[in-house]
Specification:
19 helices, disordered N terminus, ATP-dependent dethiobiotin synthetase BioD, Rossmann fold, 2 domains, alpha/beta, 38% helix, magnesium, metal-binding, biotin biosynthesis, 484 residues
């Protein structure tokens, strides 16, 4: 039985209730304290005297790690969260400092709350139902070069108890924790991470104390559903006591650094608004590379990538193949389901590119187009963290569509490079979008008599210079009140 099975069976509300009822947590949580202290020391060494401005802690429990973060970074804004309201109340009673805000939150579905320079947690990750998805959602809230630093239980934890169970031929009752290679494969695609596994030893008085203290901290313990199960458990405890010299916790320390490449993500207020045309102009203007991670509608056309290749005069080495190329002219999720394909977000790793050559990534459809059951296109954009070029029609109806798209991007703290208006010039609509969207209009592309490489050469001259998007003097829209 894996950790995800345990969580799915119990349900998140049941987990929260168990931790709420763990009144003896602080007394029994010896390993948790040591683990939090070691993680805090690693965080201290990584930041090396530089304080992160904003910190998100998930699974804060009663505040072991939170207290260390306050000590290390007294001027940082700290948001400490846990799924269990009772744990939050105990942490609040321990820490009365103005720079810490406590919230109840499921870390697998973090609330949009701006960008964080550090996201951290000690011994919470093993409760995730989908570790890779949860880490990706958290990493999408990191600032550029932000760190995600966590600990979790790894394969080999509680081996002494497992051996006693094996000898007595009794099911262990604990989850099977992941190997380091499995943990490494779960890192998000928008950066680089590593794991370091350390042995921590605990010495409970005996097997019964070991189980009782696990229960006292809200952890998983073997269930007793019958008299025979109780008899079997007592045999295991006797075997454990006869050989026990301690209990091993294999603690995996994870350190992930977000990388935001030089480039933009081109998306639109709708399908057919001119994303491919805009992408071709940007690629040509910036001598950029191009990638379309998701392509649909190949049953009716050749796709956007060949169009950009032709219009922008791109060589093959400046293009990367789509992660998914689907036949039906539908949303990626619907098109994939028609072909009995399951889209795996792990395949959306950004192509390798140099620090000097920009990358233009073109989306599929609008922001809230479903990619998987858990991902919309906007989630992919948030994961990459690249500034967004939003393409919109210039005519009637565009104000509403454009402002709604801007609101959705800002709700996830996604930087907006600006808007490209496609179609007959409309000064009134342009002024309203600038005024109420607080964004720049990067370019206006008029109705074109034809689409040729020569036309793209001419329109590329009207695109903004790359340094204005991702250079040292870049001006990006970050809020509803300013362009920063």
């Amino acid at each position: 039985m894996c950790g995800a099975d345990i969580v799915n069976a119990a349900g998140l509300s049941d987990i929260a209730q168990r931790f709420d009822e763990a009144s003896g947590y602080d007394t029994a949580a010896r390993i948790q304290k040591r683990c939090a202290m070691e993680l805090a020391d690693r965080i201290r060494r990584i930041f090396c005297g530089k304080s992160p401005k904003r910190i998100l802690e998930f699974g804060c429990g009663t505040g072991f790690l939170t207290a260390e973060l306050v000590r290390l970074f007294p001027h940082a804004e700290i948001v400490a969260t846990d799924i269990a309201p009772g744990m939050i109340r105990r942490a609040q009673s321990r820490l009365h400092v103005p720079n810490v805000r406590f919230e109840v939150m499921d870390a697998q579905r973090p609330k949009p709350d701006g960008r964080f320079d550090l996201i951290c947690s000690s011994l919470c990750l093993q409760w995730f139902t989908d570790r890779a998805l949860g880490l990706a959602r958290l990493a999408s809230q990191l600032s550029a070069a932000g760190r995600l630093m966590v600990t979790t239980l790894a394969r080999g934890s509680f081996d002494e108890w497992r051996k006693a169970c094996d000898t007595e031929r009794v099911p262990c009752g604990f989850p099977t924790y992941p190997e380091p290679d499995a943990l490494a494969s779960d890192w998000p695609v928008n950066g680089h991470g590593k794991w370091d596994v350390v042995d921590l030893r605990d010495t409970p008085a005996d097997g019964m104390t070991f189980l009782r203290e696990l229960r006292d901290i809200g952890a998983t313990t073997p269930a007793l559903h019958s008299r025979s199960a109780g008899i079997a458990l007592r045999r295991v405890i006797r075997r454990f006591d006869s050989t026990m010299s301690g209990v091993t916790y294999k603690i995996a320390f994870g350190d992930f650094e977000r990388h935001i490449p030089k480039g933009v993500f081109v998306t639109g207020t709708d399908t057919g608004v001119g994303k491919t045309l805009t992408s071709a102009c940007l690629v040509r203007a910036w001598h950029a590379n191009y990638w379309k991670p998701l392509q649909t509608g190949l049953a009716e056309e050749d796709g956007d990538a060949p169009t950009v290749r032709s219009l922008a005069r791109l060589s093959d080495n400046r293009m990367s193949p789509s992660a998914y190329a689907l036949q039906a002219p539908l949303s990626p999720l619907a098109a994939a389901e028609m072909e009995r394909i399951t889209i795996d977000p792990a395949r959306f790793s950004l192509p390798s590119c140099s620090d000097t050559t920009p990358l233009v990534v073109e989306g599929a459809g609008g922001l809230l187009v479903p990619v998987t059951d858990d991902w919309m296109l906007i989630d992919l954009i948030a994961l990459y963290g690249m500034p967004v070029v939003l393409v919109a029609r210039s005519g009637l109806g565009t104000i509403n569509h454009t402002l709604l798209s801007i609101e959705a991007l800002r709700a996830r703290a996604i930087p907006i490079a600006g808007v490209v208006l496609n179609g007959a010039p409309n000064p009134g609509n342009r002024a309203m979008i600038e005024r109420f969207g607080h964004v720049r209009i990067l370019a206006e592309i008029p109705l074109l008599p034809s689409l040729t490489a020569e036309v793209i050469d001419e329109r590329a001259q009207f695109m903004p210079p790359p340094d204005s998007i991702f250079g040292p003097d870049a001006t990006l829209s970050t809020s509803n009140s300013e362009i920063a």
